């Protein structure tokens, strides 16, 4: 069938009118006629509250078009939003439930209008992290859907998570651009949650939280594991983790490949952050360039290029384990190196660092004299633990291989770091062709092993 223009259903591009009703009417007509393409035409700004995609419908944004999130809470289907920052009301601009064969395509722009949902600052100096209002929007929320294509579009200024996919299968996200404020909390880029067979490629993401994060949240536990996910050729800037697996992980996450990505100006690079009972296994990070720096401590992270941790969220709770992770051909430069830490109750196992080339240098004014284990002790910011840093730090690991890797230190503030490699309670440590430069010229020891010499 021919394209359906939203203007055919009286949508107005005046930048003021809530066009949710005419856009929804266009989507419904397209679906009822067997599917096709609903077009947001170029020229002007189409404001909208919640719209719901239907099976067989492609929402296409022409080059030069803009779909803009309404400022008004009453224009949205409102619900408590799942996730660690749930409990506050939110709504999606574009949503779909239990649909097949849906797409969001084109070269147009979706504008989340984050400024309208902020209310001052969390910090006394009015910098770094903004304070959200009780209600704020997310952009795309797809639940229980199959055969999804999101390509080409630009999304800017999301007030909260940008693209949340829950319980979805057969997903392609290709060539999109996300430009969110780096001072807006929780504005993640792409969140596959309990999803399978997901391919994310050639995207550029800027976010004031995690760039791409694979989750299994408690609320949607019935959808099962997240698995068979590839992330390829993306460029990411993040005030938290650029690419992360966790933190919410009540179900298993497995078979994930991240390759050929470039990370710049991020608080944390490549991360697995397990705090719940799920198992995370069979993960490969390869052929990536990572640049990290410190930000304000309101954001999780400590400048780690590679971060693998499995510790209990609650002191009386359980945590799963991380196993079979390969980090290969990672070139990094930043204020911290590699941090691997398992719980005493759930050891991390079978970790390989192969071809890691790292340069560590202090560049920001923020401190680096701590380990960031957040969230812990039932608190969002519980788990900041004072401690000296090393180029590679590994605690409670069963099987760690480091080969063809090098750590070096630069700058005048090398005293922040102790060693190139520090381990404690690491069984089956294998070193092959590892070059560890001492932080201080007068220090000649490249390695610091625990008392058993393991």
How much of the sequence is in beta strands?
Answer: over 45%
- How many distinct helices? 1
Computed CA radius of gyration, to the nearest angstrom: 23 Å
Protein structure class: mainly beta
CATH superfamily: Single-stranded right-handed beta-helix, Pectin lyase-like
Number of separate domains: 1
Describe the structure.
The chain has 454 residues and is mainly beta. The protein has a single domain, classed as Pectate Lyase C-like (3 Solenoid), CATH 2.160.20. The chain contains one helix and 39 strands. The chain has a 35-stranded mixed β-sheet that branches.
Features:
35-stranded mixed β-sheet; Pectate Lyase C-like; two-stranded antiparallel sheet; 454 residues; mainly beta
């Amino acid at each position: 069938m021919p394209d359906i223009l939203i203007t055919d259903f009286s949508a107005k591009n005046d930048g003021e009118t809530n066009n949710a009703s005419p856009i929804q009417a266009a989507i419904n007509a397209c679906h009822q006629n067997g599917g096709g393409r609903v077009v947001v035409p170029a020229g002007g700004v189409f404001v909208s509250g919640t719209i719901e995609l239907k099976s067989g419908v492609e929402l296409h944004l022409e080059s030069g078009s803009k779909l803009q999130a309404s400022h008004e809470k009453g224009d949205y289907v409102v619900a408590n939003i799942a996730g660690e920052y749930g409990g506050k009301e939110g709504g999606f601009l574009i949503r779909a439930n239990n649909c097949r064969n849906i797409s969001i395509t084109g070269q147009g722009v979706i504008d989340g209008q984050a400024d309208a949902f902020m209310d001052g600052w969390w910090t006394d100096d009015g910098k770094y992290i903004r304070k959200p209002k009780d209600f704020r929007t997310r952009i795309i929320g797809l639940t229980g859907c199959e055969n999804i294509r999101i390509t080409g579009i630009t999304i800017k200024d999301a007030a909260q998570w940008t693209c949340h996919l829950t319980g979805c299968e057969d997903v392609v996200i290709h060539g999109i651009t996300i430009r969110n404020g780096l001072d807006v909390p929780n504005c993640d880029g792409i969140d596959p949650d309990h999803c399978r067979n997901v391919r994310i490629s050639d995207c550029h993401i800027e976010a004031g939280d995690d760039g791409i994060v694979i989750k299994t949240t408690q609320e949607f536990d019935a959808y099962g594991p997240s698995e068979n996910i590839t992330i390829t050729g993306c460029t990411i800037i993040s005030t938290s983790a650029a690419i992360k697996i966790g933190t919410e992980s009540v179900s298993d996450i497995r078979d994930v490949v991240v390759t050929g990505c470039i990370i710049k100006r991020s608080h944390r690079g490549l991360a697995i952050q397990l705090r719940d009972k799920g198992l995370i296994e069979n993960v490969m990070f390869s052929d990536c360039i990572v640049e990290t720096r410190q930000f304000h401590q309101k954001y999780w992270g400590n400048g780690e290029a590679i971060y693998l941790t499995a510790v209990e969220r609650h002191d009386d709770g359980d945590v799963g384990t991380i196993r079979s992770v390969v980090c290969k051909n990672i070139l990094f430069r930043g204020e911290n190196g590699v941090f691997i830490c398992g719980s005493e109750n759930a050891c991390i196992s079978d970790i390989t660092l192969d071809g890691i080339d790292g340069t560590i240098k202090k560049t920001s004014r923020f401190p680096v004299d701590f380990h960031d284990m957040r969230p812990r002790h039932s608190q969002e910011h519980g788990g900041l633990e004072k401690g000296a840093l090393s180029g590679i730090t590994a605690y409670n690991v069963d099987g760690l291989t480091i080969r063809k890797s090098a750590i070096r230190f630069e700058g005048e503030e090398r005293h922040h770091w102790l060693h190139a490699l520090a381990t404690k309670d690491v069984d089956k440590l294998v070193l092959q062709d590892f070059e560890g430069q001492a932080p201080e010229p007068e220090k000649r020891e490249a390695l610091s092993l625990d008392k058993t010499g393991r």
